[in-house]
Amino acid sequence: MRGIGKNRKRRADLLLIGALVLLACALLLWQGLSRRPGTRAVVYVDGQAVASYPLDVPTRVRLETEDGSSFNVLVIEDGRADVVDAGCPDRLCVRMHSIRRTGESIICLPNRTEIRIEGGEPEVDLG
Amino acid sequence: MKTRKLTTLALLTTAAMILSYLETLLPSVAIPGVKMGLANIAVIFALYRLGPREAMAISLVRVGMVSLLFGSLSALFYSVAGAVLSLGVMALLKKTGTFSEAGVSVAGGVGHNLGQILMAMLILDTPRLIYYLPVLILTGVGGGILTGLTAALLIRRIPPFEE
To answer: Measured between beta carbons, which residues in chain B are less than 8 angstroms from residue A12?
Structure first.
Protein backbone atom coordinates (compact mmCIF):
# COMPACT_ATOMS: atom_id res chain seq x y z
CA MET A 1 0.00 0.00 0.00
CA ARG A 2 2.29 2.67 1.32
CA GLY A 3 5.30 1.80 -0.76
CA ILE A 4 3.81 1.94 -4.24
CA GLY A 5 5.83 3.78 -6.84
CA LYS A 6 5.74 7.36 -7.99
CA ASN A 7 4.30 6.51 -11.38
CA ARG A 8 1.41 4.54 -9.92
CA LYS A 9 0.65 7.47 -7.66
CA ARG A 10 0.76 9.88 -10.56
CA ARG A 11 -1.66 7.65 -12.45
CA ALA A 12 -3.98 7.54 -9.45
CA ASP A 13 -3.82 11.36 -9.25
CA LEU A 14 -4.71 11.72 -12.91
CA LEU A 15 -7.57 9.23 -12.57
CA LEU A 16 -8.96 11.17 -9.63
CA ILE A 17 -8.67 14.50 -11.46
CA GLY A 18 -10.20 13.02 -14.62
CA ALA A 19 -13.12 11.52 -12.71
CA LEU A 20 -13.86 14.81 -10.94
CA VAL A 21 -13.67 16.86 -14.15
CA LEU A 22 -15.88 14.34 -15.94
CA LEU A 23 -18.42 14.48 -13.11
CA ALA A 24 -18.46 18.30 -13.21
CA CYS A 25 -18.90 18.35 -16.99
CA ALA A 26 -21.73 15.81 -16.84
CA LEU A 27 -23.49 17.90 -14.19
CA LEU A 28 -23.02 21.09 -16.20
CA LEU A 29 -24.33 19.45 -19.35
CA TRP A 30 -27.36 18.10 -17.52
CA GLN A 31 -28.05 21.51 -15.99
CA GLY A 32 -27.71 23.27 -19.33
CA LEU A 33 -30.00 20.85 -21.14
CA SER A 34 -32.71 20.92 -18.53
CA ARG A 35 -33.03 24.67 -18.14
CA ARG A 36 -35.45 26.88 -20.00
CA PRO A 37 -35.85 30.65 -19.81
CA GLY A 38 -37.99 31.47 -16.76
CA THR A 39 -40.95 33.81 -16.40
CA ARG A 40 -40.35 35.55 -13.08
CA ALA A 41 -37.66 36.55 -10.61
CA VAL A 42 -38.52 35.57 -7.06
CA VAL A 43 -36.79 37.16 -4.09
CA TYR A 44 -36.08 34.89 -1.13
CA VAL A 45 -34.91 36.07 2.28
CA ASP A 46 -33.85 33.33 4.71
CA GLY A 47 -35.37 30.82 2.30
CA GLN A 48 -38.78 32.52 2.38
CA ALA A 49 -40.23 34.01 -0.81
CA VAL A 50 -40.89 37.71 -0.16
CA ALA A 51 -41.45 39.19 -3.63
CA SER A 52 -41.87 38.17 -7.26
CA TYR A 53 -41.30 40.19 -10.45
CA PRO A 54 -42.26 39.17 -14.00
CA LEU A 55 -39.26 38.98 -16.33
CA ASP A 56 -41.11 40.58 -19.25
CA VAL A 57 -41.65 43.88 -17.41
CA PRO A 58 -38.56 46.12 -17.07
CA THR A 59 -38.18 46.87 -13.37
CA ARG A 60 -35.73 48.53 -11.02
CA VAL A 61 -36.32 47.88 -7.34
CA ARG A 62 -34.35 48.49 -4.17
CA LEU A 63 -34.67 45.56 -1.74
CA GLU A 64 -33.96 46.67 1.81
CA THR A 65 -32.94 44.09 4.40
CA GLU A 66 -35.26 43.64 7.36
CA ASP A 67 -33.22 45.79 9.73
CA GLY A 68 -32.62 48.40 7.02
CA SER A 69 -28.85 48.17 7.34
CA SER A 70 -28.22 46.88 3.83
CA PHE A 71 -29.86 46.53 0.42
CA ASN A 72 -29.70 44.96 -3.05
CA VAL A 73 -30.82 46.74 -6.22
CA LEU A 74 -32.54 44.35 -8.61
CA VAL A 75 -32.91 45.32 -12.27
CA ILE A 76 -35.03 43.38 -14.76
CA GLU A 77 -34.42 44.13 -18.44
CA ASP A 78 -34.67 42.12 -21.69
CA GLY A 79 -35.98 39.11 -19.76
CA ARG A 80 -32.91 38.99 -17.49
CA ALA A 81 -32.56 39.75 -13.80
CA ASP A 82 -29.40 41.30 -12.40
CA VAL A 83 -28.23 42.81 -9.12
CA VAL A 84 -26.54 46.11 -9.98
CA ASP A 85 -25.86 47.57 -6.55
CA ALA A 86 -25.74 46.31 -2.97
CA GLY A 87 -24.88 47.44 0.54
CA CYS A 88 -23.22 44.19 1.58
CA PRO A 89 -19.47 44.22 2.27
CA ASP A 90 -18.31 41.76 -0.40
CA ARG A 91 -20.71 42.78 -3.19
CA LEU A 92 -20.25 39.40 -4.84
CA CYS A 93 -23.94 39.50 -5.83
CA VAL A 94 -23.24 42.58 -7.96
CA ARG A 95 -20.40 40.83 -9.74
CA MET A 96 -22.43 37.71 -10.53
CA HIS A 97 -23.77 37.42 -14.06
CA SER A 98 -27.37 38.31 -14.87
CA ILE A 99 -29.78 35.37 -14.88
CA ARG A 100 -32.74 34.33 -17.01
CA ARG A 101 -33.10 30.54 -16.98
CA THR A 102 -35.27 28.60 -14.57
CA GLY A 103 -33.30 27.55 -11.52
CA GLU A 104 -30.52 30.11 -11.93
CA SER A 105 -30.01 32.37 -8.96
CA ILE A 106 -28.03 35.31 -7.64
CA ILE A 107 -27.17 34.93 -4.00
CA CYS A 108 -26.12 37.53 -1.47
CA LEU A 109 -24.87 35.64 1.58
CA PRO A 110 -24.37 38.68 3.86
CA ASN A 111 -27.95 39.87 3.27
CA ARG A 112 -29.27 36.28 3.36
CA THR A 113 -31.04 37.09 0.10
CA GLU A 114 -31.47 34.98 -2.99
CA ILE A 115 -33.00 36.01 -6.32
CA ARG A 116 -34.14 32.97 -8.24
CA ILE A 117 -35.64 32.54 -11.68
CA GLU A 118 -38.82 30.47 -11.69
CA GLY A 119 -41.59 29.50 -14.08
CA GLY A 120 -40.88 28.08 -17.54
CA GLU A 121 -40.96 24.32 -17.73
CA PRO A 122 -39.56 21.82 -17.26
CA GLU A 123 -38.01 22.80 -13.98
CA VAL A 124 -35.32 20.62 -12.49
CA ASP A 125 -36.03 19.62 -8.96
CA LEU A 126 -32.78 19.55 -7.09
CA GLY A 127 -34.44 19.88 -3.68
CA MET B 1 10.97 19.65 22.35
CA LYS B 2 7.59 21.04 23.36
CA THR B 3 8.67 24.60 22.72
CA ARG B 4 10.09 23.55 19.37
CA LYS B 5 6.80 22.02 18.33
CA LEU B 6 4.82 25.04 19.50
CA THR B 7 7.10 27.28 17.50
CA THR B 8 6.77 25.10 14.41
CA LEU B 9 2.98 25.15 14.67
CA ALA B 10 2.95 28.92 15.17
CA LEU B 11 5.26 29.39 12.20
CA LEU B 12 3.08 27.30 9.88
CA THR B 13 -0.10 28.98 11.13
CA THR B 14 1.45 32.35 10.37
CA ALA B 15 2.45 31.16 6.91
CA ALA B 16 -1.13 29.98 6.29
CA MET B 17 -2.50 33.35 7.44
CA ILE B 18 -0.12 35.29 5.22
CA LEU B 19 -1.12 33.13 2.26
CA SER B 20 -4.79 33.85 3.03
CA TYR B 21 -4.03 37.55 3.15
CA LEU B 22 -2.09 37.40 -0.13
CA GLU B 23 -5.07 35.74 -1.71
CA THR B 24 -7.38 38.59 -0.70
CA LEU B 25 -5.06 40.92 -2.67
CA LEU B 26 -5.44 38.87 -5.85
CA PRO B 27 -8.56 39.55 -7.89
CA SER B 28 -10.73 36.43 -7.97
CA VAL B 29 -10.58 35.44 -11.60
CA ALA B 30 -13.72 34.79 -13.64
CA ILE B 31 -15.99 33.49 -10.92
CA PRO B 32 -16.90 35.72 -7.99
CA GLY B 33 -16.02 34.29 -4.61
CA VAL B 34 -13.80 31.55 -5.96
CA LYS B 35 -10.38 31.29 -4.39
CA MET B 36 -7.38 29.11 -5.05
CA GLY B 37 -6.90 28.14 -1.42
CA LEU B 38 -3.27 29.13 -1.14
CA ALA B 39 -3.37 28.64 2.62
CA ASN B 40 -3.81 24.95 1.92
CA ILE B 41 -0.11 24.83 0.95
CA ALA B 42 0.82 25.31 4.61
CA VAL B 43 -1.86 22.87 5.76
CA ILE B 44 -0.71 20.10 3.39
CA PHE B 45 2.88 20.71 4.43
CA ALA B 46 1.80 20.27 8.06
CA LEU B 47 -0.23 17.17 7.20
CA TYR B 48 2.81 15.46 5.67
CA ARG B 49 5.46 16.73 8.06
CA LEU B 50 3.60 16.78 11.38
CA GLY B 51 0.36 14.82 11.06
CA PRO B 52 -3.41 15.21 10.71
CA ARG B 53 -4.06 16.60 14.19
CA GLU B 54 -1.41 19.29 13.84
CA ALA B 55 -2.67 20.16 10.35
CA MET B 56 -6.24 20.47 11.66
CA ALA B 57 -5.10 22.75 14.49
CA ILE B 58 -3.23 24.99 12.07
CA SER B 59 -6.16 25.07 9.66
CA LEU B 60 -8.75 25.95 12.32
CA VAL B 61 -6.63 28.62 14.00
CA ARG B 62 -5.95 30.12 10.58
CA VAL B 63 -9.65 30.19 9.74
CA GLY B 64 -10.55 31.78 13.07
CA MET B 65 -7.83 34.43 12.90
CA VAL B 66 -8.50 35.32 9.27
CA SER B 67 -12.23 35.66 9.93
CA LEU B 68 -11.49 37.96 12.87
CA LEU B 69 -9.00 40.07 10.95
CA PHE B 70 -10.36 40.30 7.42
CA GLY B 71 -13.75 38.61 7.36
CA SER B 72 -17.11 38.42 9.00
CA LEU B 73 -18.64 36.07 11.52
CA SER B 74 -20.99 34.54 8.97
CA ALA B 75 -18.01 33.69 6.77
CA LEU B 76 -16.50 31.82 9.73
CA PHE B 77 -19.16 29.08 9.61
CA TYR B 78 -18.58 28.42 5.92
CA SER B 79 -14.82 28.45 6.36
CA VAL B 80 -14.84 26.06 9.31
CA ALA B 81 -17.07 23.60 7.44
CA GLY B 82 -14.79 23.83 4.42
CA ALA B 83 -11.62 23.42 6.49
CA VAL B 84 -12.88 20.40 8.44
CA LEU B 85 -14.22 18.51 5.43
CA SER B 86 -11.12 19.36 3.39
CA LEU B 87 -8.69 18.10 5.98
CA GLY B 88 -10.82 15.03 6.73
CA VAL B 89 -10.74 14.00 3.09
CA MET B 90 -7.03 14.75 2.73
CA ALA B 91 -6.05 12.81 5.85
CA LEU B 92 -8.04 9.79 4.65
CA LEU B 93 -6.60 9.83 1.13
CA LYS B 94 -3.07 10.31 2.43
CA LYS B 95 -3.55 7.29 4.68
CA THR B 96 -4.48 5.04 1.76
CA GLY B 97 -1.07 5.78 0.24
CA THR B 98 -2.58 5.65 -3.26
CA PHE B 99 -2.21 9.29 -4.22
CA SER B 100 0.63 11.82 -4.28
CA GLU B 101 0.39 15.25 -2.65
CA ALA B 102 -1.31 16.61 -5.77
CA GLY B 103 -4.12 14.04 -5.67
CA VAL B 104 -4.59 14.52 -1.94
CA SER B 105 -4.70 18.28 -2.43
CA VAL B 106 -7.23 18.05 -5.27
CA ALA B 107 -9.55 16.01 -3.06
CA GLY B 108 -8.99 18.58 -0.31
CA GLY B 109 -9.83 21.48 -2.62
CA VAL B 110 -13.06 19.87 -3.74
CA GLY B 111 -13.83 18.88 -0.14
CA HIS B 112 -13.30 22.48 0.97
CA ASN B 113 -15.74 23.85 -1.61
CA LEU B 114 -18.22 21.08 -0.85
CA GLY B 115 -18.09 21.80 2.89
CA GLN B 116 -18.71 25.50 2.30
CA ILE B 117 -21.67 24.94 0.02
CA LEU B 118 -23.23 22.31 2.29
CA MET B 119 -22.98 24.75 5.20
CA ALA B 120 -24.46 27.53 3.06
CA MET B 121 -27.33 25.23 2.04
CA LEU B 122 -27.93 24.54 5.72
CA ILE B 123 -27.71 28.13 6.96
CA LEU B 124 -29.65 29.69 4.09
CA ASP B 125 -32.06 26.74 3.85
CA THR B 126 -31.52 26.84 0.09
CA PRO B 127 -30.95 23.36 -1.37
CA ARG B 128 -30.68 24.90 -4.82
CA LEU B 129 -27.19 26.14 -4.05
CA ILE B 130 -26.19 22.68 -5.24
CA TYR B 131 -26.41 24.20 -8.73
CA TYR B 132 -22.96 25.64 -8.10
CA LEU B 133 -21.51 22.19 -7.50
CA PRO B 134 -20.01 21.61 -10.98
CA VAL B 135 -18.20 24.96 -10.93
CA LEU B 136 -17.02 24.34 -7.39
CA ILE B 137 -15.67 20.91 -8.34
CA LEU B 138 -13.71 22.39 -11.24
CA THR B 139 -12.24 25.25 -9.22
CA GLY B 140 -11.45 22.84 -6.38
CA VAL B 141 -9.53 20.63 -8.81
CA GLY B 142 -7.66 23.58 -10.32
CA GLY B 143 -6.71 25.13 -6.99
CA GLY B 144 -5.89 21.70 -5.60
CA ILE B 145 -3.40 20.91 -8.36
CA LEU B 146 -1.65 24.25 -7.86
CA THR B 147 -1.41 24.05 -4.08
CA GLY B 148 -0.63 20.32 -4.11
CA LEU B 149 2.34 20.67 -6.47
CA THR B 150 3.65 23.66 -4.52
CA ALA B 151 3.31 21.80 -1.22
CA ALA B 152 5.03 18.72 -2.70
CA LEU B 153 8.02 20.86 -3.69
CA LEU B 154 8.25 22.38 -0.22
CA ILE B 155 7.89 19.00 1.51
CA ARG B 156 10.86 17.74 -0.49
CA ARG B 157 13.03 20.85 -0.38
CA ILE B 158 12.65 22.15 3.17
CA PRO B 159 15.01 20.17 5.41
CA PRO B 160 13.45 18.18 8.28
CA PHE B 161 12.80 20.03 11.51
CA GLU B 162 15.06 18.96 14.35
CA GLU B 163 13.25 17.34 17.22
So the answer is: 98-100, 103
Size of interface A-B (CB pairs under 8 A): 91
- Closest Cβ opposite residue B97 in set A4, A103, A114: A4
With respect to residue B163, please indicate whether it lies within any of the assigned structural domains.
Answer: no
Q: Is the same domain home to A57 and A13?
A: no
Domain hosting residue B37, numbered range: 2-157
Residue A75 and residue A113 in one domain: yes
Of B32, B74, B128, Cβ closest to residue A105: B128
Q: A33-76, pLDDT tens digit by residue?
A: 777 788 999 999 988 999 999 999 999 999 998 888 899 999 99
ipTM of the complex, rounded to two decimals: 0.86
Q: What is the CATH number of the domain that holds B82?
A: 1.10.1760.20
Contacts of B43 (CB under 8 A, 6+ apart): B16, B55, B58, B59, B62, B86, B87, B90, B108
Query: Between the CA atoms of A64, A65, A69 and A73, what dihedral angle is there, to the nearest 10 degrees?
Result: -40
In a domain, residue A127? The reply is: no
Residues above pLDDT 90, as percent of chain B: 64
- Whether pTM > 0.90 for this model: the answer is no
